[in-house]
Specification:
The structure is a single chain. Helices cover 60% and strands 14% of the residues. It has 568 residues and is of the alpha/beta class. α5 runs antiparallel to α9 and α6 packs antiparallel against α8. The relative contact order is 0.15.
Length: 568
């Protein structure tokens, strides 16, 4: 049984930055009152959000964040299951989702989706739909049981009866059947292929026996042809090698050329620098009359002498650079020729390697042919061929064994599927509980002075008859009568859940059920039902507090103060 202890929230909807805390296990009946918009229904959205990551009402997740503070939205719920104490926290801005068991955080290595699945399947053992059918009855986004589609009605009841596991098992069995079917299809294909291979190999061996001499002649001819090709390729290989050797002799000076080219470039760089240096000196004496360091006047005759000397040096350098240029061009031309020859040698080496590879493969092939021919000469059929046939036959036997095993597995799985489908075990269990369900529903309806015979069949379709045997449907009743049926179903599911110990909890929240749909008589009868519930903590949300508050053990009042919801 899940014992909900408390829920608290801040910066959630109209609530500000201070936690609003509601204790869920203190009183058997609690009335939550307040004006429209005061925030009294916030508890529904808070519980659904923290447990299932979606609010009870039709509100976008982003709208749950308080629009004034716009940050640090946090909801926390505390509950106990047996000896274990759980605390679940969920937040927005920043995003937060944490589960604690006995104050120790549950491992968060899984993805958020798997973490949520763990909370629902392993801890709560109920989902959003079951929670809103057994714990909450409201008039906002709540969809009563009778307004659910047939398949969803069944899901709710399966959760309550704790037979959802059979649906999961059925899904797993279906997946296994698909896998086995796929394996059978593959193994049938392998069987067919292997049988064809065996047939072909057998025919091949028979042909070998019949055509021994012909095969030997063909192999000898093939060996001779291959040898001719080998001889041609060997000649081509040797020609290329000889050509490469001659080319190497042509470029014997390649190292000297490269060294000379390097030295000439170094000399050229040096001459260029000296030319620049002397030119700068000439420019200086032409354009300056005093020394920039000592500030003394430079004699005109000294200037002329220096310009003359440096000009001679420049002439010498220019002449040298002209000679150097000629040598550089000659060296570069030789270097270019050497590179061309080197590339030709590399091309020859690649061709030689390709020829050698081809020669090696042909020689291996000839060796294989000679071995096969010798085998034929000695026995007719090669041992390798006989071994291959035996290997194929052994493989076929294994395939047949696997096929037989898979067909047996599929037969058993199909039988399991038949038992686990909706018309099998689950329907049998549902049929056992249907009389109890129908009896409870009618008992609760009678206690609210609604005198009809309400019956659900195994597909959860209703049959409603009056005392005069007139037949009705759920849709044909007034809103107040529908509410009585919804309440009767709610209490029935809670009673069944308690019997099965599946979706069994202390908490029941009813949102504004007195405010429109129930008349005075219905309200009184409903309160009588509430007072009969043991170990229940029932919360009723209403804006008719003045007329109802004396009928409840505890009253919580919500009010708006400066646009923020508070509990007074």
């Amino acid at each position: 049984m899940i014992i909900f202890k408390s829920v608290k929230w801040k910066n959630f909807l109209s609530t500000g930055n201070t936690f609003t805390t509601i204790y869920l296990d203190k009183q058997p009946t609690t009335l939550i009152v307040g004006d429209n918009g005061a925030g009294k229904s916030t508890i529904l959205d808070a519980l659904c959000f923290v447990l299932f990551n979606k609010p009870f009402r039709i509100v976008k997740k982003s709208q749950l964040v308080n629009s004034v503070n716009n940050t640090e939205t946090v909801v926390e719920v505390n509950f106990e299951i047996g000896t274990r104490k759980y605390r679940v926290m969920r937040g927005i801005k920043p995003s937060k989702f944490e589960i604690y068991c006995n104050d120790k955080m549950v491992n968060q290595d899984a993805s958020s989706r798997d973490y949520q699945k763990y909370l629902e399947q392993n801890i709560l053992k109920l989902n959003y739909r079951s929670f809103t059918q057994v714990v909450i009855l409201g008039n906002a986004s709540f969809i009563p049981f009778m307004q659910l589609k047939s398949v969803h009605r069944r899901e709710v009841v399966e959760e309550i009866l704790d037979i959802k596991i059979f649906s999961l098992m059925n899904m797993l069995v279906k997946n296994q059947i698909k896998e086995v079917t796929d394996e059978l299809r593959d193994i049938d294909y392998n069987k067919e292929i292997t049988e064809e291979k065996i047939d072909l190999q057998g025919k091949y061996i028979e042909d070998l026996k019949k055509n021994k001499d012909k095969i030997i002649r063909e192999k000898l001819s093939k060996i001779d042809d291959n040898q001719d090709i080998i001889d041609d390729k060997v000649r081509d290989r040797e020609t290329l090698k000889l050509q490469s050797d001659m080319l190497l002799q042509d470029i014997a000076d390649r190292i000297e050329v490269e060294d000379k080219l390097t030295k000439l470039n170094d000399i050229r760089s040096t001459l260029v620098e000296k030319h620049k240096h002397h030119s700068r000196k000439i420019d200086f004496f032409k354009n300056n009359d005093e020394c920039p360091e000592c500030k003394q006047m430079i004699e005109e005759e000294f200037k002329k002498q220096m310009i003359t000397d440096k000009s001679k040096d420049v002439d010498i350098i220019v002449k040298g650079m002209k000679q150097l240029k000629t040598e550089l061009e000659q060296s570069k031309e030789r270097s270019k020729k050497i590179k061309e020859v080197t590339n030709q040698i590399r091309t020859n080496d690649v061709k030689v390697a390709q020829l050698q590879s081809s020669i090696t493969e042909l020689e291996k092939f000839n060796t294989q042919l000679e071995t096969e021919m010798k085998s034929f000469q000695e026995g007719g059929v090669g041992k390798a061929d006989e071994d291959k046939l035996q290997e194929l036959e052994n493989s076929l036997e294994k395939i047949k064994e696997q096929r037989h095993k898979l067909r047996e597995d599929k037969m058993y799985l199909e039988a399991s599927k038949s038992m686990l489908q909706d018309s099998g075990i689950k329907t049998k269990i549902i049929k056992q509980y249907l009389p109890i369900m129908n009896k409870l529903i009618n008992t609760y309806l009678t206690s609210m002075e609604f005198y009809v015979n309400f019956t659900l069949n195994e597909n959860f379709e209703e049959t409603i008859k009056s005392r005069y045997r007139d037949e009705f449907t759920y849709a044909s009743f007034s809103e107040g009568e529908k509410m009585r049926i919804d309440l009767a179903l709610l209490f029935t599911w809670r009673a069944i859940a308690k019997m099965k110990n599946s979706t069994n909890t202390n908490l029941l929240i009813l949102d504004e059920i007195f405010d429109s749909s129930l008349d005075g008589t219905g309200t009184d009868e409903f309160l009588k039902i509430l007072n009969t519930l043991s170990k229940e903590n029932t919360f009723v949300i209403s804006h008719k507090g003045d007329t109802l508050q004396d009928k409840f053990r505890s009253v919580i009042r919500f009010e708006k103060v400066k646009n923020f919801s508070h509990v007074s």
